[in-house]
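Quick question, first post here. What does this chain look like in 3D?
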Amino acid sequence: MARIGKSFFDRDVDVVARALIGTTFIVDGVGGVIVETESYDPTDPASHSFGMRQAEWTASMFGPPGHAHVYKVYGLHWCLNFVCRVASAVLIRAIEPKYGIEHMIRRRGTDKLEQLCSGPGRLCEALAITKSLDGASLMRAPLSLEARTKRPQLISGTRIGLTKGREAERRYGLKGSIFLSKKFPP
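> Answer (accepted):
Ran it through. Tokens below.
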């Protein structure tokens, strides 16, 4: 498989969010196929970079394309974003487990494959993603991102769990996947 480079991320965040569906993401040998994403940019009231406001915990969103922005939501769960153009990023919501499944099962405490990585917090727990990866390059170990081999059928809808900007259709998924965090409306 072909590795994805920095130029892949130096595009409109919605284009990248759709293009990530079907790619393979691995952290230190553990991972799978990305099946669900959400996009955020500085014009979006739900984005950490809304209005180009920076904070210590959002600094990685203002860096160059092609690196990770990792943060904790509700003080409980780590979430992983792939930074695109300045202050825009794609939240990785779900993957289909493919590699290192035994590690995911141990970390998550469940052997139900559809629940291992179906949601940003579950995904980070299964892949052992923490703040230590904030700002890490997506093109260097322990992270690896490989291009998809075929164009998948996509579905889109409104984002999940937001109080602001929830009406925006910026959630993308692999049609028919059982590994989504939540089904898309018909």
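The chain has one domain: 6-174.
The mean pLDDT is 90.
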